[in-house]
Amino acid sequence: MSGSSPLKCLVVDDSALYRKIVRDVLAGMPDVEVVGIASDGQQALTQIEALRPDVVTLDLEMPRLDGIGVLRELQARGLDVAAIMVSAFTARGAKATTQALQLGAFDFILKPATNSLEESIAQLRQDLGPKLRACLLRRAGKQAKSVARVAPTAALPASAVSAARIVQPRPPQRPARFLARHPEIVAIGVSTGGPQALTQLLPLLPANFPAPVLLVQHMPPMFTKSLADDLDRRCSLRVMEASHGQPVRVGEILIAPGGKHMRVARLATGLVVQLTDDPPERNCRPAVDYLFRSVAQHYGGATLAAVLTGMGDDGTLGAKAIKQAGGLVLAQDEASCVVYGMPKSVVENQLADIVAPLNRLHEHLLKPFAGRIAI
């Protein structure tokens, strides 16, 4: 990791042992500074207001005020800090984590389920590393936007000007184009920031939305089931975690289960989804690329795909396959992303037909069914 100043972190957990483990793991990372610890939610809020950390590792279950309560207070007080939730790998933990992500938590990690302290430390280091790199990108993006708002006549450090240039959005320069026929499938890929984005986007699709929706959200097993159940309560369309051999049907949104790839296959009875244990792609299983390739193969130019907020570049190769088959690709814009990684890669590889903010994406999912889309 690199940055102009260390990433300031606050560790919050009611277990003294776990606080020490997380603090030591963070302290051993480059460009990270542990500025404080707290044993419950009330202490955490006091420390956040006093220390103004960039990141807080936040336990879900604590006395006095739990992690969910802390997130609600952060919203109420207008405190901007990236909260990385620390969750148990249980159905209860998955449900609470889904709620936390929809309340604005940046991401989450699982408490290591090992019998070895050394293995737990190694697992935490492995899991926290990518999240903290994403937090550095988040901070750099915020700083660059702040720089961009400064009057041009103001004296700015060269490094700040360079950062501002790097993160400027690059919308595709393409003439208007149209789908050869109405879409028959919608495929969506999303990672960090996904639960909150999906909670905003999917309930805007009407009950008579005329195409099935297949979705990959980077999450572990059990957590995708909790997400699907929560979205199902909010949406007009039926939302569920996909099962192997399930038909692809209009009126349903199928989410790939954590730990399984999802693809489309054609059987004598019609198109179905298949779940596989094929090797991870881009360190992801499920992978967006894996789904997108199969959708391009079976639906070709009748494919409408969207790549939303997330770390890394999963979805880029799949978007290329969809474009080559004649389909359309949407990308979430930088300003509305929690992490502008996956959509940024799609945009910079000139694969996005439309780049739109999250609150306008539903319009572009609906337009192709009424007629043409002009870019």
TrEMBL record:
Function description: Involved in chemotaxis. Part of a chemotaxis signal transduction system that modulates chemotaxis in response to various stimuli. Catalyzes the demethylation of specific methylglutamate residues introduced into the chemoreceptors (methyl-accepting chemotaxis proteins or MCP) by CheR. Also mediates the irreversible deamidation of specific glutamine residues to glutamic acid.
Catalytic activity: [protein]-L-glutamate 5-O-methyl ester + H2O = L-glutamyl-[protein] + methanol + H(+); L-glutaminyl-[protein] + H2O = L-glutamyl-[protein] + NH4(+)
Protein name: Protein-glutamate methylesterase/protein-glutamine glutaminase
Residues with PTM 4-aspartylphosphate: 59
Residue stretches spanning the membrane: none
Predominant localisation class: cytoplasm
Entry keyword Cytoplasm: yes
Gene of this entry: cheB
Species for this entry: Botrimarina hoheduenensis
